[in-house]
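Input/output pair, single chain:
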Amino acid sequence: MLNANLIEPMAFAASGASRSWDFALHELDERVAAHEYFADTSARVQAALHGGTDKWQRHFIDVRLHAELALICQRCLHAVPFVLDETVRVLLFTDEAAADAVDGEDEADVLVVTDSADVREWVEDQLLMALPFAPSHDDCGDNDPRAYADPKTNPFSVLRDITPTKR
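Output:
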């Protein structure tokens, strides 16, 4: 059985092909499906790839991801909506030396490719890189962490009663 998620990156880019995929988070690899930030793993991620050649005759694939996700707020632990709408250009090379010569000069990602690539892995990588460092609401209401602090349990509160001695 053929894997519908496999492409030949260089041929895809050279032909200017375009194709779309749709994945549920829970269908992706465990590093995504079991990620602690996702409040709902039934959310779907739409991925669209478009190949081409730039003015320097370098092959590329534009990877566009779109998803409406529910992430867990790191302050209040309730769901916070997060819209992912990102396009990344990936420059394709067949050898490390050519990729190293370009890496850092361009805003595009650089990738050394083999004969085939799994689109699902590209989606997983881009999705994880697009997540915020610490998702949170702009305003979590009355969930101020200082409201939960108990001054009686502060281990340094005993220092308040100590009087300094002179030497």
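The beta strands are 6-7, 18-24, 44-53, 59-72, 79-93, 109-112, 117-118. DSSP finds four helices and seven strands in the chain.
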